[in-house]
Amino acid sequence: MAEKNVQRLPAEELYQRELDALIAAEADPIPTGWKMSPRSALTYLTGNTTVKGVDITPKYMGNKRLVEIAIATLVTDRALLLIGEPGTAKSWLSEHLAAAVNGDSTKVVQGTAGTTEEHIRYSWNYAMLIAKGPCLEAMVKSPVYRAMETGSIARVEEISRCASEVQDALISILSEKRLSVPELGLEVPAAKGFSVIATANTRDKGVNDMSAALKRRFNIVVLPTPADMATEMDIVRTRVAQLSSGLDLNARQPGEDTVEKVVTIFRELRAGATLDGKQKLKTTSGVLSTAEAISLLANSMALAGSFGDGRISDSDLAAALQGAVVKDEDQDKVTWKEYLENVMKKRGHEWLPLYRACRELNG
User: Fold this and answer.
1) How far apart are CA 262 and CA 224, in angstroms?
2) Coil, helix or strand for 250?
3) Nearest to 109 by CA among 45, 199, 189
4) Nearest CA-CA partner of 318 in 291, 289, 348, 339
5) Nearest to residue 278, comparing CAs of 346, 230, 354, 334?
6) pLDDT by residue (tens digit) across 168-178?
């Protein structure tokens, strides 16, 4: 399939020019199994510089020290666990860390209620197993198995959504750095460079809480929500531009005032208070994260490009806001109505068109 027809490229393909430039300009020691030095990996992730004529764009906009800790963890024999609220760029950072370190971010186990121990270890091609019996050819290796063989990074997304027996399968792998295949009498040792990056959502903490034994195998980095308005606006603006460049939205980028309105609404409803702290607000049932704001603006662009003149209107923005804010019809509809009447309506003429469009949709 041609690249232009692929809906989403992995990070190492999407940012291949940046990775190649950093590798070509490398001047520091490179750990075994890595494609570049930890310092170059940090440059790739934080960006805002030019290397060999190639602009390195920021992938993570936040506390630089957290990124340094994450990279330094992967140099050791410890696994890395990224924890945070939904939409704090855990998966995004995990993918780009793997792309920078190995040039391969695709060894992924997606944690769900249906994830089994086989997804962590290995399974079998049962037709071949019946025909030939247990053999290497009949084995279906998991992403973790392949990462151990090649000395690279495996990613486990939403680890707290996996059942306890699935989580426990990781304990021996992270402790012994070996994987046992009793059917073949094999012990597969992890090659140098092997590590695991896992992510966990604080909202799902009680689903299948990680055991103390498993947590001890990880170095934990907590990713916070953006600390201030300017940082969150910068993240939203940058990611909307990146996201929309790969989609046929046929719309202009959202203006500064549009981004500011969305981020203001999200920060206030998330915090349960207006930005000036003078008025308490009810919070919504869903998490109005930075990632949700990015998706909301992309949806607004799709409406504007498909059914408007390509410029996001207040009606487009109101429709996207309604879908993002009102997740629970009973609770959120009341919360949103109170916000419209008690906050947005009183903000002056610049907010009135958006207020009217939102009120009309919310009923």
Assistant:
1) 19
2) coil
3) 199
4) 339
5) 346
6) 999 989 999 99
